[in-house]
């Protein structure tokens, strides 16, 4: 009986923790350039700075000479989780920096070809709560970092048509931490007693893989540009260290059966392919409008299974359904040239959430969201400076049923502030 209880509690705990990895994976990072952020994070049809490597690599053909582009985005997510019957708890909303760097050149002699190389982060986030809060059996701290680095090329195949492509080496790393309610499993009188909590940590879960993207840019008319883009999905086969610390009191209560464990674990995390289309319309000499539509194939994230190298009756493999859904995102923005060297920008965005109520949790308490953004750009000599701010209004969520466990049931309130600054140099 004790072996079965141990197996049940570990299975439940890991079904919570592995979702932590999806916190980063479910949060795409489109903040690749401050001008784009200021215009609702769009730009597939515009793509006129080196963030085009992400937005639409065909747009790199618009760069001249040798250019360097440095961007730093800052994301500050705020989440409040009210577990049914408990006080509310807020996450630690630290500013998460997301830098990127691009270098491009036509080598001074190519009129129809531009080569580039860059590094950025396209998925990932971090979230942390008080380790004594009512969410501690679901998530205390989680992080996922993805680093994409690789070459890009853009080729103007006709005077009004350009194509582009990129291939990226992807490095991913994840960490997860939470507690386990061993007291409640062994004795109802000890339910959620912190003195009897176990501690589960998954660290240094890493993988390396390859991704790619394609783009097309068509100047359909003198004042209209159309862009199409595709980014591949990837499967991350993450493997890391697993530490299960069981308090001495639980070891004694179990007659020595429950012991701390150190092993390794592996899981596969699927990130979606993305297909997008965008327009850039020059409404007047000083005003340009953009609109983007993206489809994200999040339904690839059907489940997440965890396999351990040292299986025991007390530490079983787990199978955990997620059933995420495909989503659409919409971006709308504008750029007004106040003066020849000063640009004012604003935008709006809407993102669908891929996470259904049945698999939501406090580690990623997101929902459908609207956002507004604004920014300014300044150009002088061979340099450009862009800054931007965006605020995301995320729909509140109240969940009464969940396929994961009863604990994620409750109310979720979330918002986010986003900052970005980009600096460009032309030589």
UniProtKB/TrEMBL annotation:
Keywords for this protein: Cell outer membrane, Membrane, Signal, Transmembrane, Transmembrane beta strand
Signal peptide bounds: 1-24
GO CC terms, sorted: cell outer membrane
SUPFAM superfamilies for the chain: Porins (SSF56935)
Cellular compartments annotated: Cell outer membrane
Source organism superkingdom: Bacteria
Stored InterPro entries: OMPP1/FadL/TodX
A GO MF term: long-chain fatty acid transporting porin activity
Bilayer disposition of the protein: Multi-pass membrane protein
Membership in a protein family: Belongs to the OmpP1/FadL family.
PANTHER family linked: OUTER MEMBRANE PROTEIN NMB0088-RELATED
Protein name stated in the entry: Aromatic hydrocarbon degradation protein
Organism: candidate division KSB3 bacterium
